[in-house]
Write the structure tokens for this entry.
Amino acid sequence: MTRKAIVTGHSRGIGAALAALLRAEGWEVLGLSRSAGERVDLADPAALTAWLTGGRLAGFLADAGEVLVINNAGLLGPVGVDGPLDAASTVAAVNVNVTAPILLTDAVIAQRPADATVRVAHISSGAGRRPIVGWGVYCATKGAVDQHAATLAAEGRPGVRIAAVAPGVVDTAMQAQIRGEDGFPLRDDFVAMHAEGQLRSPEEAARLLLDLVTADDYGDEPLTRI
């Protein structure tokens, strides 16, 4: 059985750690990002759609017996409670965090070989499951992928298992961005977590995520965490 994995945002953070781990364990990995691997701007739905229908995805999946999709790429979006939201940042966050995972997941399910199984993980966040003041766009987008995972799980498509997975607080570039956001009411809390060594490493998060996604009962709980 040929094992194929698709990881978005694979050039850094959890995505980079996960791609390295998958390759070490014998998976053939296709990475999607703006800067490495398959260079696709996930913030541009037209560009992503052109790539999904251009033959590269179908070719990668052609001999797959088992497919793993990790929708890891994400943007924080505009942060703060004062003033109007930046429109361009808002649109980009919605496209990367919501539109791209939905389009990629749908394309993989449609283009996989008839006998191939598919497991999908949307990298979500606790922010999608509770309101966080100043994070309206990020909370909304993560809540959206939570519901997408829950809905696909409820549909019970043959050979498809899916969940939205909250990885906890991980030491990534996004966390560094959060700590630099002066307009974010909870900034000091995140600064303290970093200073006290409470952030999970990308490598630890990747190991826990892969163990979860490959478990026999994966998808039984479509909203989960590690």
In short: The chain has a mean pLDDT of 96. The first strand starts at residue 3 and ends at 8. DSSP finds eight helices and seven strands in the chain. The domain at 3-167+202-225 is CATH 3.40.50.720 (Rossmann fold).
